[in-house]
Write a structure and sequence with these properties.
The chain has 41 residues and is mainly α. It contains 3 helices and no strands. Helices cover 80% and strands 0% of the residues.
């Protein structure tokens, strides 16, 4: 926990938001895999 807080403090706010977006994408992909893998593209 402490190390994570120090890392977050050393990172810019935009980078933190980017990390949150990446985490959200991973969670969405884990919850709705058929939506991403079955899309006809």
């Amino acid at each position: 926990m402490v190390l994570t807080l120090h890392l977050l403090r050393g990172v810019g706010r935009q980078n933190v938001m980017w990390s949150i977006r990446q985490t959200a994408r991973v969670e969405l992909t884990a919850v709705f895999p058929p939506v991403f893998f079955s899309s006809p593209e």
